């Protein structure tokens, strides 16, 4: 049953991982699907604790986990359909779509309600999180939002129209095409494939509704094609109106090299920027592409790992040189085409300085890169406006690239600059999206001591965002943080401890920290004279003690005397954390509670229950309740032992009397 329990928990985690991989929900159901997926992701810590627990479970409990998996698999199938299915179908059949969502939500709510949480070894924090998810499912049953009414009415009006659409229906077609993001040929092709797949899955019996949707799609295709053709005709007309002048000009103007043209607009680029796949586009064109909800590179169709746009200074310079050589007016600089975001925060001189620093970071020699990274480090530290301006200028991916340089000073400046930039909340996501974590971890392992300290501080800053906790832990940051906690300077230990504390709030990182050997280091810091790390060590132990492995290792480390002493003499925060650790230890082994009582726990505990922090009072109350229960058990055991002893004595006396009588008769 133990292996079955672990396999069942892992299978639930696998389903959530599959759900996490589903993205780009159709616009009409995006909010509904995102909420459902978010709630299911919050269940992962419970599944991980079940998988790692040593507590056995019975067949009934196993049955509830199997039932939950079936409900989650239904949710996964629903979410995949809402990501890959026909956009037109999801709007026109909105009642069926929302009814299916309600059905999925009810199944999930019922399955979660049947789980006997008291029989599972789940921490209080995780159980509270699961109860929150359960309450959200209950509330969601009564209110399921529907899609845009105007869009729904436009689609139905088109269905009731013949395939020959007159001018009166052009506005409706335009609204539908824009709202469903069917203005580009690739999007129309994808929608066509989705409808064909629905026909195929129905065994060829498409039904009247699917046929109507196919007719509407044809109308939209014709409208988009006609709209594009009209645009081309306008260009041709403008060209003809120029008469012979146009012909003469075409003979003089040289052919623009393909590398200077934007792959989207096919026009010469004025503000070329690089996307994560390495392709270059005109900034305004790629921004429109991204704003339309696309997540792939237009030219290669590869998935974009980041939406960061990095200025291509080299190409911009080459375009300017080519224009000058061919007596063509060079493209106007980007600042004259559109307001630079940095201008609202920086003077023109500062903006020019930042752009110069970007150039040196990207194309300078090592000495230029070293000095540029150092200047950015200082500028980013100075104020919030600089942090925004530097990030918008494209510094983040350039700094990330320099983390792998063999030059230790460039490494140090780059990771510290990223630390200072990460103070801005909007920059945190951009830094992780730019692929910074592996480079930061490498600096944490191999960099100079100052670079390692700042790498740890950067990880702490980034881990404030919950989803970054998962990414940072998965990319191997925890073991080198434990090494720094063990051997770093005082500042390094503080930075490592704060990062570890934040990361271990996520249940999946607790096991990683425990297996990296953090608990022996923490217990040593508790008793090491002058360590100055007691606050941090107790806070992390309070988190790790809720993990089965962590509880076992702390329990075997002879930590109870220190915990009792901190409850007696520690600061308010240390008293509550020490009590929290003791609560978890005593839940697994009452001998720890017996030991704590012998060490004089009762007096400090009563004081904590009356004068501690709110959390300290709760933990003290839990310990006092356990002590009371233990005392009752000891009384019952003693009474039972006394009764047994009396029974044994009476039996012995009776036996002796019988023996004496038998001897007298003889």
From TrEMBL:
<dbReference type="InterPro" id="IPR059179">
    <property type="entry name" value="MLKL-like_MCAfunc"/>
</dbReference>
<dbReference type="Pfam" id="PF25598">
    <property type="entry name" value="ARM_PUB"/>
</dbReference>
<feature type="region of interest" description="Disordered">
    <location>
        <begin position="634"/>
        <end position="666"/>
    </location>
</feature>
<dbReference type="InterPro" id="IPR036537">
    <property type="entry name" value="Adaptor_Cbl_N_dom_sf"/>
</dbReference>
<dbReference type="InterPro" id="IPR011989">
    <property type="entry name" value="ARM-like"/>
</dbReference>
<feature type="region of interest" description="Disordered">
    <location>
        <begin position="227"/>
        <end position="252"/>
    </location>
</feature>
<feature type="domain" description="U-box">
    <location>
        <begin position="255"/>
        <end position="329"/>
    </location>
</feature>
<comment type="function">
    <text>Functions as an E3 ubiquitin ligase.</text>
</comment>
<comment type="pathway">
    <text>Protein modification; protein ubiquitination.</text>
</comment>
<keyword id="KW-0677">Repeat</keyword>
<feature type="compositionally biased region" description="Polar residues">
    <location>
        <begin position="239"/>
        <end position="250"/>
    </location>
</feature>
<protein>
    <recommendedName>
        <fullName>RING-type E3 ubiquitin transferase</fullName>
        <ecNumber>2.3.2.27</ecNumber>
    </recommendedName>
</protein>
<keyword id="KW-0808">Transferase</keyword>
<dbReference type="InterPro" id="IPR016024">
    <property type="entry name" value="ARM-type_fold"/>
</dbReference>
<dbReference type="GO" id="GO:0061630">
    <property type="term" value="F:ubiquitin protein ligase activity"/>
</dbReference>
<feature type="repeat" description="ARM">
    <location>
        <begin position="394"/>
        <end position="436"/>
    </location>
</feature>
<feature type="repeat" description="ARM">
    <location>
        <begin position="517"/>
        <end position="559"/>
    </location>
</feature>
<dbReference type="Pfam" id="PF04564">
    <property type="entry name" value="U-box"/>
</dbReference>
<keyword id="KW-0833">Ubl conjugation pathway</keyword>
<dbReference type="InterPro" id="IPR013083">
    <property type="entry name" value="Znf_RING/FYVE/PHD"/>
</dbReference>
<dbReference type="InterPro" id="IPR045210">
    <property type="entry name" value="RING-Ubox_PUB"/>
</dbReference>
<dbReference type="GO" id="GO:0016567">
    <property type="term" value="P:protein ubiquitination"/>
</dbReference>
<feature type="compositionally biased region" description="Low complexity">
    <location>
        <begin position="636"/>
        <end position="646"/>
    </location>
</feature>
<dbReference type="InterPro" id="IPR000225">
    <property type="entry name" value="Armadillo"/>
</dbReference>
<dbReference type="InterPro" id="IPR003613">
    <property type="entry name" value="Ubox_domain"/>
</dbReference>
<dbReference type="InterPro" id="IPR057623">
    <property type="entry name" value="PUB12-19-like_N"/>
</dbReference>
<dbReference type="Pfam" id="PF25368">
    <property type="entry name" value="PUB10_N"/>
</dbReference>
<dbReference type="InterPro" id="IPR058678">
    <property type="entry name" value="ARM_PUB"/>
</dbReference>
<dbReference type="GO" id="GO:0007166">
    <property type="term" value="P:cell surface receptor signaling pathway"/>
</dbReference>
């Amino acid at each position: 049953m133990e292996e079955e329990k672990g396999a069942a928990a892992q299978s639930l985690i696998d389903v959530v991982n599959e759900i996490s991989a589903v993205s780009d929900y159709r616009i009409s159901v995006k909010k509904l699907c995102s909420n459902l997926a978010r709630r299911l992701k919050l269940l992962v810590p419970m599944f991980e604790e079940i998988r790692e627990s040593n507590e056995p479970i019975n067949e009934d409990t196993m049955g509830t986990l199997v039932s939950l998996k079936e409900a989650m698999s239904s949710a996964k199938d629903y979410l995949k359909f809402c990501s890959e299915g026909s956009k037109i179908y999801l709007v026109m059949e909105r009642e069926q779509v929302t009814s299916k969502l309600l059905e999925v939500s009810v199944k999930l709510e019922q399955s979660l309600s049947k789980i006997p949480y008291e029989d599972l070894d789940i921490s209080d924090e995780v159980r509270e999180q699961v109860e929150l998810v359960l309450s959200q499912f209950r509330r969601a049953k009564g209110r399921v939002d529907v899609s845009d009414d105007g869009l729904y009415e436009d689609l139905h009006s088109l269905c009731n129209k013949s395939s020959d659409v007159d001018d009166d229906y052009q506005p409706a077609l335009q609204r539908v095409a824009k709202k469903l993001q069917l203005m580009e040929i690739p999007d129309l092709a994808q929608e066509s494939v989705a409808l064909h797949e629905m026909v195929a899955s129905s065994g060829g019996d498409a039904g009247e509704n699917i046929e109507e949707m196919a007719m509407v799609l044809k109308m939209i295709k014709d409208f988009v094609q006609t709209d594009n053709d009209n645009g081309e005709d306008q260009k041709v007309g403008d060209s003809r109106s120029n008469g012979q002048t146009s012909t003469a000009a075409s003979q003089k103007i040289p052919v623009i090299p393909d590398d200077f043209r934007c792959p989207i607009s096919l026009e010469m680029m004025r503000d070329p920027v690089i996307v994560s796949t390495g392709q270059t586009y005109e900034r305004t064109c790629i921004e429109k592409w991204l704003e339309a909800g696309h997540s792939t590179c237009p030219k290669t169709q590869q998935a974009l790992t980041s939406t960061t746009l990095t200025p291509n200074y080299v190409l911009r310079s080459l375009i300017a040189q080519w224009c000058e050589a061919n007596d063509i007016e060079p493209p106007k600089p980007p600042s004259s085409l559109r307001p630079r975001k940095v201008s609202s925060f920086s003077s023109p001189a500062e903006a020019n300085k930042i752009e110069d620093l970007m150039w040196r970071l990207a194309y300078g020699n090592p000495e230029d890169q070293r000095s540029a990274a150092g200047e950015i480090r200082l500028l980013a530290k100075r104020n919030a406006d600089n942090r925004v301006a530097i990030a918008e200028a494209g510094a983040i991916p350039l700094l990330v690239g320099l983390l792998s340089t063999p030059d230790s000073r460039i490494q140090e400046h780059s990771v510290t600059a990223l630390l200072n930039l990460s103070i801005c909340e909007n920059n945190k996501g951009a830094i992780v999206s730019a692929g910074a974590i592996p480079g930061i971890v490498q600096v944490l392992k191999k960099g100079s001591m100052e670079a390692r300290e700042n790498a740890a501080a950067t990880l702490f800053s980034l881990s404030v965002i919950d989803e970054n906790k998962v990414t940072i832990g998965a990319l191997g940051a925890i073991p080198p943080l434990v090494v720094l906690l063990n051997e770093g300077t005082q500042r390094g230990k503080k930075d490592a401890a704060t990062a570890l504390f934040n990361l271990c709030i996520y249940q999946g990182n607790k096991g990683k920290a425990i297996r990296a050997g953090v608990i022996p280091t923490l217990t040593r810091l508790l008793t090491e004279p002058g360590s100055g790390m007691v606050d941090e060590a107790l806070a992390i132990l309070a988190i790790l003690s809720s993990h089965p492995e962590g509880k076992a290792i702390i329990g075997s480390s002879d930590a109870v005397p220190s915990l009792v002493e901190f409850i007696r003499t520690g600061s308010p925060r240390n008293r509550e954390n020490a009590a929290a650790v003791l609560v978890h230890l005593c839940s697994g082994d009452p001998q720890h509670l017996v030991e704590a009582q012998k060490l004089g726990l009762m007096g400090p505990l009563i004081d904590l229950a009356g004068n501690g922090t709110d959390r300290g009072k709760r933990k003290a109350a839990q310990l006092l309740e356990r002590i009371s229960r233990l005392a009752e058990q000891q009384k019952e055991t003693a009474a039972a032992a006394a009764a047994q002893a009396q029974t044994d004595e009476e039996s012995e006396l009776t036996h002796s009397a019988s023996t004496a009588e038998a001897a007298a008769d003889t």
